[in-house]
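Q&A log
Question type: sequence-to-structure
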Amino acid sequence: MMSWRGYHEFTKHSPESLRRTRHVLDWENMPDPFRHYEGVPLLDLPADPPAPATPMLDVLQGASGSTLAAEGSVFLSQLLYHAAAISASKRIPSTGSKYALRVNPSSGNLHPTEFHFISQGLNQWPDGLYHYRPSSHMAEQRAIGDFSLNCPLRFILTSIVWREAWKYRDRAYRYCLLDIGHAWQALTLAARAMGCQSFATGHFPDDAIAQSLRLNDDEWPFLVVDLHPGSILLSANAASNTAWFGGKANELSKESVDYPRIDEIHSATKLHEVTEFRSASTESDGIGEIQLPVPASSGRAFGDVARIRRSALDFCGGTESMTLVQLSTVLAAANAPLVADFASARFLQLYLYVHRVEGLQPGVYRFWPQKNQLQAIRPGDQRVAAAGLSLGQDLAGNACVAFSMVGDFERATIAFGDRGYRYVFFEAGALGHRLYLAAEALGLGATGIGAFYDDEVHRYLGLTSAAGEVVYHFAIGHPVPDARLQA
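Response status: OK
Response body:
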């Protein structure tokens, strides 16, 4: 069986690997980006739910909102509208066809992540198991009755890896894990903006969860998120015995291609029973010579920012810059606590390629979060290097600042076994989502970059093998207009 280390090494990009494994997309067999269950009741989620008004930057720093609806359907509509719904569309000029964008980002806009939820005691909402259908903003009722929860609302985030593998092949598992991290933060931050607290669980027996939800074979559970709304939303009605409506999952493609290495890494990171895990050790914090300023504030409301978040097509690479205060603000958002059973310690280190930040010389820097300081690693213009390391993508050089997220898989797997491989990527996706939202709140744009020359990044940053592995690239700057975008 392939270990996490073997999988990660095999899926690294290099100029040689890209030349050796050229891939032509089979557009006729592209997976449907929307899952639905045929033959189950559909419950409407009210249109135009209230927008959480708490400032986005406050929510990112832990502030809780107060726009919790008293009725279950309105609450669920508000939550999903700001966490997982369609937010806009793009039109392809050459064909006139359209494709949907969502509140939660996804690698290649392929959206492998599905949102299932179980409710218990929500006011004027039947207890049971549901699947969110973003194409129509409705809830598919898969079962009613008692699922014996210890919380009023539980989300199970799953992934259909074939959606990503259609384009990215063996490397797709990485992207699915990153997307789960994005979806996790989209959900929990929306809940916080409304007035609910959450807790994410990554340590659970996979097959037991999949069987309890009667998931299709192509869909794997990755994260369980419990939400605790205020008592105003709860009803004392007792749940009945569970009754299933059945429902057949739609076929996403005429055929799917097997990727044995993905099956192997998934099997290697699965749990078959609930196990104890060791507390993850905390990396000792270093110091830098540059003290970052106090983060900025912004009154832009969570609801407004979450709905207009986009992945920038490219950035204005001219004279436009961002301020050092803005950089400090997005770093503070990324460094805020994550609430999960695997998040007592952090496994990522951020390296910055600074291009145009007022008050900061161009160069490569390491971020030390405990002291909010930057350490200079490499001086000089980094635009060509940042773009080149990101598979020649110009946006990494045109941005004001680009990032490499380096994950400490050794510490993660010592604490959690091979399961820790997932958690490093979940953290990276979570940080990426926070960077997206903070940038948007400041009037900037951002883009996650999952493709890069892995080992070349390490050589350029001067990292040893003990320093970890690069797992995600990111860029923030002033986005160029996208003429294809439609509200």
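Response note: The mean pLDDT is 93.
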